[in-house]
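Q: Hi! First time doing this. I have a protein sequence and I read that you can turn it into a structure. Is that right? Here it is:
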Amino acid sequence: MRNHHIRLLFTIMLIASAAALTGCPQSASPPGVDVDADGGASSATPSGTIRISGAWALYPMTVKWVEEYRAIHPEVRIDVSAGGAGKGVADALGGMVDIGMVSRAIRPEEISKGGWFVSVARDSVFPIASEANPVLEQLRETGVTRETFAAIWMTGEVTTWGQAAGTENTETLSVYTRSDACGAAETWARFLGGEQEDLGGTGVYGDPGLTEAIRKDPLGIGFANLNYAYDPKTDLPIEGIFIVPLDVNGNGRLDEDEDFYATGDQVVQALSEGRYPSPPMRDLYLLCKSAPEGATRDFITWVLTEGQKYVREAGFVPLDDETLAAEMKKLEQQ
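A: Yes, that's right. Below is the predicted 3D structure, encoded as structure tokens:
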């Protein structure tokens, strides 16, 4: 019996020693929280869900950002959907999403409702036609002036492809516009001196829909955001689509510094160098109902810092250092 008690005591001592060596600390930090050297919680690791909706223009860039951000923050779920800048603004200000993607200037009334926003990249809107266009070669040589585009969409004074290209062709233009409230249409209209409601033509929903309509219509003319005019896999215009050159200086011919439409990379370079007017070049924004917090704030901070290295490769124009500093200041001041 004595030996049995000794063995039992010895076993208890071994168990106690093991518990002392391997047991949990007195206070454990909750999941997703880093612990500093003193055992207290430090900065929280981003977690939760971020909901994003809005502009078709910014959608491809945002998808790329989300992929790269989640590679280092897999604990954050991010849902992204496109539906036009108008939807992004309404969803964000209405609290339906955390971030709205906006491809036009933020309006004063949206700011007065508490809207908080930052610029995150740049791109442009381009006029597009079918590769089967009857005056394609003439358009390649002369381009089309802003005044002619305005006469097509705004006043309806130009109705044939011959008038648009300066030839005798009498085939009637098929004019298309966007049916959804979107940054592309508003930006294109601003370039032509009006508002989206002033644009004539058959309304089509979304960039993909309008591009497809033009592709199927040899007499069609429309407009598209940069990343829906060019194929990201080939860096060439979407198959069946012709980017109608803009005669920027209006001299009736496409000069060397105006001829940069062969590839998406050439276009981005031209935009970066200011060889295309603004509008239709424009800033792209992320909009929140109020100053962002938690994972949303962390994601936007990452977009303005590490995320900028993905902008050019995704076919967008990166922000200049001065603009980036100004946008980062908005985060720091909140």
